[in-house]
Amino acid sequence: MAKKSEEIEEFLKEMLKQTENNMIEIQRNILAQQFNCAPSQISYVLTTRFKDNKGYIVESRRGGGGSIKIYELKMRDDQQVDELISRSIGESITKFKAYDILDHLHSKKILTERESQIIKRSISDRALSLVPSENKNPLRAKILKESLLAVVKYNNGS
Fold this sequence. Notes:
This protein is mainly α. The chain contains 7 helices and 3 strands; from the N terminus they run αβααββαααα. Helices cover 58% and strands 10% of the residues. α5 (95-107) runs antiparallel to α6 (113-122). The protein starts with a helix and ends with a helix.
C-alpha cells in the first residue's frame, strides 16, 4: 500500500508543478480508477501527505464525483505566508507539528538548515523547560510565528 500511496503523491505533486496557479482540481473516483485503488486510498494520501503544515491546502466538495482542490502554498507571497502561519500554527502548536513545518520549509529551500535548527532549538521542550506545561504550546506557536515572519521577510528583502 505504501508504494501505491507514494505513486499517487508523486503524481499529484507533478501535476502541481505543471500549473501556473499552484492549484489542481481532481475527482477522487477518477483518480482511484487511474491508480486501480479504492477512493479511500486517495483520501488517505490527501490527509497524510498534503497537510497544511506541509504547505498544502486541500478542499473537498461532495457530490458530482467528489471534486477536490489542492493548493500548494508558495512562500514568496506575503499573503500566503500569513495564510500558512495562521492555518498551520494557530494559537497553539505541538513540538512535532512545528518541526514538520520547519522540515517542509527547509525541504522547499525557504529556510536554510541553520535557520531551521535555530528555530527548532528555540521552541524545543528544553528551551521551554521553565514554562508550565499548559503554556508551552501557545508560547511555542508565538515564537514559531515570529521567527518565521522574521526569516521570510528578511529573505524577501523586506
